[in-house]
Amino acid sequence: MANRKVTYLPELVDNNIELSVRHLKQFFKFGHGKNAFVTKAVHDISFDIKKGECFGVVGESGCGKTTTGRTLIRLYKATSGSVYFKGYRIVAGNRWNEKEIKWKRIKTNRKIRDLKNEMNEKIRVLSDEQGNKEFVESESAKIRDQYNAQIEKLKTDLAALIKEQKEKIAQHNYDNKHVDKKLMSKMQMIFQDPVDSLDPRMTVEDIIQEGLHIQGQYNAFENSQKVREALIKVGLLPEYASRYPHEFSGGQRQRIGIARALIMNPDFLICDEPISALDVSIRAQIINLLNNLKDEMGLTIMFIAHDLSVVKYFCDRIAVMYFGNIVELASSDELFAHPLHPYTRALLSAIPKPDPLSEKERKRYIYVPANEHDYSKEAPSLVEITPGHFVMANSEELEKYRKVLNETK
Predict the structure, then answer these.
(1) 54-90 b/e with 16+ CB inside 10 Å = b?
(2) Which pLDDT score, from 0 to 100, does residue 409 have?
């Protein structure tokens, strides 16, 4: 254990990838015993976010957007999968490795039981057919040696797999435990509700500089200067530092939340629906602020939202989530020009139009999975149908989507 190091993948950095998610799963268990049940909030999602880009995640309430963001920043412990930030693994779940051990044990024990039954049956038949006791004993010994060799091989293979998976689990636990705090400080999050995310008993200055204290920076003068700079950067007056959250409007509170994230000088920012609780006029101000900060500070942003029209304006690439899965992933222009998955088309059809005449003619598309898909014969997977455009589909659906693309292009 002394020589163990945190897992690092230099190829991610070489390819300019800031954040990489691999087969991430986040399950929540409720209840105890027979009444316990598991909710699969996020189920096996993978994507990369390149340095300097804005990556949008859209979908209806409860589809797993916020859970994904909170898992990436380690507010939730991942069930399975890995997350790499700047090449270093910062999140590692063990469920897959634990299940691999469990099912391998079950399958091995089942095979051993079948082999023993087969061996005993052969010996029984041999005893019934042969009357020579010495011959029966000699042949039975050969049969036992033959089957015992197979059983020993199964046990050896099982032991090797258990050792391998336990080593991976140990490495995952090490990665989770030894993540560099300075590295994690380069990843910050802006929360959805600007009221609940700010402590009402703390002043604005205390709220913003709390992250500095966590990192061990206690120089009062320097911290105060950084707070002033952060407030100015988000369009607030430095005098606001001595006030409390209840003295501000919703838009100003959200700016305080942004200042709290920016004071850590992050490289990666997770924006969890930062405009959903704000008025329309204030939304535009916050979006413009984030756009300016992105260019000024060279930020990489993961933008979680409901509003597709906002995401189209703000994001370079968009991932559409439904029931914990990414069903479509493409560049912003490509997704709006050639939506393939029925759920994506349903989301786009729900965008209201400002023109009353065209609004009357707008066709609403209702997504009903049971009517759209038949996965009884083949399960779907996220497939790259054209360069950079991924869609969740099986072989039959892929052919259909390709025909649609050929007709529309």
Answers:
(1) bbbbbbeeebbbbbbbbbbbbebebbbbbbbbbbbbb
(2) 66
- Look up residue 355 and give its two tokens: 């023109």
Q: Which of 121, 148, 177 is the last residue of a domain?
A: 177
Listed residue (188, 182, 179, 181) closest to 263, CA to CA: 188
As for how many domains the chain has, the answer is: 2
The length of the chain in residues reads: 409
Q: What is the pLDDT of residue 238?
A: 93
Quick: pLDDT tens for 365-376. 889 998 898 898
Residue 321 lies in a domain: no
Across the chain, mean pLDDT equals: 91
Q: Is 131 within a domain?
A: yes
390: part of which helix (H) or strand (E)?
strand 389-393
Last residue in a domain, options 149, 177, 205? 177
| Chain segment 214-272, per-residue pLDDT in tens | 888 899 999 999 999 999 999 899 999 999 999 998 889 999 999 999 999 999 999 99
Closest CA to 269 of 18, 26, 89, 99: 18
Tell whether 226 is covered by a domain.
no
| Structure-block tokens of residue 35 | 């009444």
354: containing domain: 329-408
- Answer yes or no: is 150 within a domain: yes
